[in-house]
Amino acid sequence: MDTRLNEDDLAFQTEVRQFLSEAWDKDLAATYGNIATMKEGVEEWQTRLFHKGWVAPHWPVEYGGTDWNVTQSFIYNSERAAAGAPEVLPFGVTMVASVIIAYGNDEQKKKFLPRILNSEDWWCQGYSEPGAGSDLASLKMRAELDGEDYVLNGSKIWTSYAQYANWIFCLVRTDSSGRKQEGITFLLIDMNSPGVTVRPINTIDGFHHLNEVFFDNVRVPVENRIGEEGKGWTYAKSLLVHERLNIAEVASSKRALTVVREEARAEINGGKSLLDDPIFAKRLTDIEIELMALEFTELRALASISEGNPPGPESSLLKIQGTELQQAIQELRMDVAAYYSGTLQGELTPAGLGHNFADSAQKLYFRGRASSIYGGSNEIQKNITAKYVLGL
Amino acid sequence: MNFNLSEEQVLIRDSIARFVAENYAFDQRNVVVEMKHGFNAEHWQQFAELGWLSIPFAEEHGGFGGGPVDTMVIMQEFGRGLVAEPYLATVMLFGALLQAGGSEQLKGDYIPQIIDGQLQGAFAYLERQSRYEMTDVVTRADKDGEQWILNGEKTVVLNGGAAEKLIVLARSAGQQSDEDGLSLFLVDGSSSGLQRTVYRMTDGQEAATLSFKDVRAEAVIGTVGDGFGLMSPIVDAARLAICANALGVMEALNEKTLEYCKTREQFGVAIGSFQALQHRMVDMFGACENVKSLMLRAVCAAQDDDADARRSLLALKVMTGRAGRMIGGEAIQLHGGMGMTDELSIGFFVKRLMIINSLFGDADYHQQLFAALVNIPASSAAA
Questions:
Q1: Among A289, A303, A317, whose Cβ lies nearest the Cβ of B319?
Q2: Residue A304 confidence (pLDDT)
Q3: Could you point out which of A28, A76, A87, B122 has its C-alpha 20 to 30 Å from the C-alpha of A214?
């Protein structure tokens, strides 16, 4: 049993810190943080990572990944989060790329992986439908073979950043005769194809990141199919496990908690720092203690994966606890902002509003409500854990 | 980075698991706790023969030189079986204090006896008024020539009935709650002026109230006036040990509850098929995994003497208390009426968790220590 960092690890940590201090600068953080310029910010950040060779650390080296071990991945992720730098958007690098690498053919790998790596393509995910949420396998979007093309009709919903994306990966129904999990096919679709339209969905956090995507007789060449027809559910399922691991975002929550602590320290109520309020201190330390546990739960999962075990259904627990903690921190921060948590900054500056973090606190609080819904709601995760871990 | 046990640790774990499987079925345990002093003296001899009593002691005294991971392995397995023998009191507290502060003569005399299973000990630190503040001590130690005379009372002394030797915390100088001026004394259990009132704890183990009237100490353990400094790291190691014990208890409770829900039928189906119960069991499983993660964190930090060791230990003690309460309550609830009875082992496991929560300070107490550690300096920053 050993969790110490050796000399190589410490040297790597120094290299990561050095890189982050240069690559994640104030200007980039401002560009990234503003919804109007976010697309530019994402592409610039991911390009800087690409030039360093770190945009897709978990990929096999032959496709542009790294050979980091568990400890290095942990160090990178901790340092990145501590610096306030975001994770790479998952839709391309993590989600569709994992499927292409595992199940795609050589042509597809050659065509798509380099363009994911250098951020030339922006991918979005087409899984959920208006009638298929937690019961994803009941999806209905039709794909019918017509010569060398599939012809698609239907719609996908909750599609993050579809307004920026030029590619979408979709689960579509190619057969409705058997079990609902069968007859699902995994397709890669050019968003510029005739018949694709995107409708924005405005959300309670005041941002536009979600969309509904409509497909009206959209033609997709068969060569854009991953693997076999009807096997899409199997491919997608393997991906969901990875997705859940990522959603926990323990390192980012650690940073968020540090921020809240300092903000609370500076808030004075009745002449005392909020940190001296025993009820507030209890809430804060409840979260910190659970986060310390979850950090090691994640390490245990990573160590197990590095020993060759597949990421297990335990990742559902990480998803549940990770998102509950994110939400607890967001809620705490909103409460720190007191009266200002109900204000809308709009065009004002923080100084004009009179409070420097209330705006982000309430937006993140509302945006954060989504984390226990997406990636399979936490209730679905409990069903999965009950079935596959507890054997119920 | 790895969380694997060494080969030796796996061997210890497996041998304790075998012992538990052979000797600690529910009806066997009921017989054990009815025995004199609440444990089986033959088991204790078996522990000695299997080398378990030697594990934390230095090799020069015949010990194994084990560390926090070894202790975790042992105590966790003992927890899974709800083992009643007084390993904590005799080995982890009395033995560890002797090893840390005893003279070479004392160590040479007594540690081999502990290892051979020939000596039972106890650590008497608590007093009626002290609650969780271990520095709140009014038992007096006064010097009489070369000897020390003890007067006062110690409460809830675990293994206080069987202990042949005691280590007693007493005040040799200073005010009631001062850290300085506390000293540790070795006292023979048959000393004149020492009176024991022996009783049982809810989980079957024995404890005692000890009253001291002009009792002559056999020796000083450590330096006079610095007893608190000597005992603090040992109490911390004991905290780690009891959390590991609680983890084993929680694992056992979860396994038993899961098994019950898979077999108990109502409305014509196993009750484990009901989603309302499934989600509760997932929460129990998650709570136990949290404790396991903090356990590994604390034990690795202790092993490496890491800067994060104290924070991790406090977090572990808080979460062990909270998760233990939750898992215990849920285990009773999911067993329905049977969970209320002495006909199942569930209640006895739950009682052990309750005792562990209050040992050395409960979850709330440790959370205050934790908050003071991580939020410093709140007031000074505000001012």
A1: A289
A2: 85
A3: A87
Q: What is the mean pLDDT of residues A132-148?
A: 95
The predicted pLDDT at position B382 comes to: 38
Q: Do B1 and A273 touch (CB under 8 A)?
A: no
Full-prediction pTM beyond 0.90? yes
CB contact under 8 A, B275 and A288: no
| Whether CATH 1.10.540.10 fits B7-119 | yes
Enumerate residue ranges in chain B where pLDDT < 70: 377-383
A298 is catalytic: no
Query: pLDDT of B261-314, one tens digit each?
Result: 999 999 999 999 999 999 999 999 999 999 999 999 999 999 988 889 999 999
Shared-domain flag, residues A130 and A216: yes
Q: What is the mean pLDDT of chain A?
A: 93
Please check the confidence at residue A314 and state whether its pLDDT lies above 80: no
As a CATH number, domain B122-225 is 2.40.110.10
Which of A296, A317, A318, A372 to mutate against chain B (most B CBs within 10 Å)?
Answer: A296
Instruction: Report pLDDT for B379.
Output: 54
Provide the pLDDT confidence category of residue A327 given band limits of 50, 70 and 90.
very high
Q: What is the ipTM of this complex?
A: 0.93
Give the domain range for residue A55.
7-88
Q: Please give the Cα distance from B125 to B169 (Å, whole number).
A: 5
Q: Do B278 and A383 touch (CB under 8 A)?
A: yes
- AA identity, residue A92: G
Q: Which residues have C-beta within 8 Å of that of residue A337, sequence separation ≥ 6?
A: A355, A357, A358, A361, A362
C-alpha dihedral over B332, B333, B336, B342, to 10 degrees? 20
How far is A211 from A199, CA to CA, in rounded Å?
Answer: 5
Helix (H) or strand (E) holding A90: helix A90-90
Min Cα–Cα distance to chain B from A387, Å:
9
What's the gap in Å between the CA of A264 and the closest CA on chain B?
Answer: 9
Q: CATH 1.10.540.10 in chain B, residues?
A: 7-119
Nearest-neighbour CA in chain B from A235: distance (Å): 26
Handedness of CA A105, A111, A117, A123 (dihedral sign): negative
Domain co-membership, A141 together with A29: no
Give the class (CATH, top level) of B229-374. Answer: mainly alpha
What's the CATH code of the domain at A336? 1.20.140.10
Q: Which residues make up the CATH 1.20.140.10 domain(s) of chain B? A: 229-374
